[in-house]
Structures are given as structure tokens and as C-alpha cells.
Here is the input.
Amino acid sequence: MRTWRGHQLLSPATAGKYETHRKYPLFFRPDSKVTTDELIALFRDRMEGVVSDEELALGKTRIIGTETASQVHLMRVHPDLPSFMAVEEWLCFSNAAYAPFLPISNALTTAAAPYTYVLPNYALDTNSAAHAYKKLNALAAQDRKRLGLNVERYWENRETKWQADWQKTLGEAKKLAESGDKAGAAALLTAQTSALEDAGRIYDELLWHLMETTNTMTYGFSYDTLQVGEKKESVFMPLVDAAAYAAQRNWRQEQTSKGLRLSREGQSVEILPSDGKRTSKGVLKQGGKERAIAAVTKEGKVYIPLDKAEKIF
Here is the structure.
């Protein structure tokens, strides 16, 4: 079924209705050119919309984005680049569902220590990048709808930015290689993303969300009326660096004494983070109006929920 699903998504004419005993060709030509985003989505595919939620919950179907994958590799060969840097790889250091795909070149000369760390024992080890991503993956997978979907959404947003940056980097590296600076090209392609820091932060946010929402009372309860109310929703929403998210969409930024001011084409937004106390909320100033927003400061950066960032910017 996993092979058939690939056909269904990329070359529907070769798929047809799924037949249990039919062997589908592993290699085939897609109906049209595919993008990196489409292939990453394929690696994360869970047969949703094809197999019933009940069947998935019972574990009767082996999905493409299986939790047992230790690494996932997506490779593209550029015929117009020198061979020493012609292979672009998007590598996921865990199973694909809730971990990022990172850009790597075959010109890679070194990597940050967590990515080259060799596990001395088969056990959780915080020195390992793979375990940092797997840790987040495992926690998010406990409830896909409430916990996992927005983690996946966060990485999709980051990957879009990395892909745009990577294509620019490839162009710059190609110029260096053509000028004879092979070492410079390799050094440029060795640059790392900040994904590991993101994974650690989101893991902590997700764990805190669970600490705050774990309760046998899944329905609201009033001590005034002694009545059970509506069912409580506790969907996890990752925080994003507001300045970086806005800059990705061409907003100018300015740090103020109280927070962050962003502007673009006559529009202006100011975010004033909370003081970090339990009931404190941040403030969003936009279009002459003020409203509360879950804005916090971490290591000098202002963070807001991903869904709010999508609406504001």
C-alpha cells in the first residue's frame, strides 16, 4: 500500500483502486515535475483520507511516515553543478512526522558535534541530535490532532524558508567553484540551520503544554454552579520568533524598549510581550487597536503562537 500511495499522489493514472495482492512498481515517472515540499509531504504521509481513522488507530496499516524510521533521505542531483557539490540532500534525523528535513550537500566538510555524535550505549542521550528530534517526535505522536499537527506545520514553514535560502546558497557556491575557490564553495555549503535549537525549544513548550493540560476533567467545571460545562480543547500551538517570521515576509523590524515593532507598506504592528507571570498576556497593537496575545520573550527574542503569526503577517 505504501508504494501504491506514492503512485496515487504523484502519478494517479498508474495507481487506480488499491489491490492488496498487486505489486506496484517502486520506480515510476510522476505525471509532472515534483517539488521538494511534495516529496517531504510524501515521506510524512499517514494514509489519511485513504485508510479510516479506526484502522490507523488499531495499527493495521503500515503508513509511509512510520515512527520506526531512524532517518529519512531525499536526494536531488544537479547536472549543472560541479560533481563535488552536485548532490543536494534533505535529511531528517528521525522519523519524518514531527522532525525537520535539513539541507546537506555532498560537499559537506564538517558538522556540529550533535550531528556527528556516536552513541556509546543504546539509550536516550541528550548529546545526540537524532535523539533531540526523536524525543520531540515521540511526544508529538501521542496525539496527532491535539499535539502533533501543529508541530508538523511549524517544520513545514521552516523548511520553506530553508529551501529558498538553500537555492541562493547553491548559486553563490557555484560562482565560487567556477572561480576556482572549491574550498570556499564547500565551506559555504557546510553552514548549519538552527533546527536543533528549535527542536529543543518546541519539546519544552510541548511538555509544558502537557503539564498544564493533563487532567481527568476533560470538561469544564464551575465551582459556582457545580455544573459540568463544555469539553475543553487543549491543542498545542508552537511559538515562532516573530521578527524572523515577519522578515521572511519582507516586514521591517525595530526593537523597542518594551518589545518589537514591525512595518511593511504602510502597515504597522507592535508586539509587547508579557512579564512571564502565570496570568500575564502580551499586547498586540495593530490598526489603532490593542488586543491580548500570548507573546513572551526568550533570550532577547519575542515569540508568538504560529497561528497568530500566520494571521498577522
About this structure: The first helix runs from residue 2 to 10. Residues 93 and 280 are 37 Å apart (CA to CA). The two ends are 40 Å apart (CA to CA).
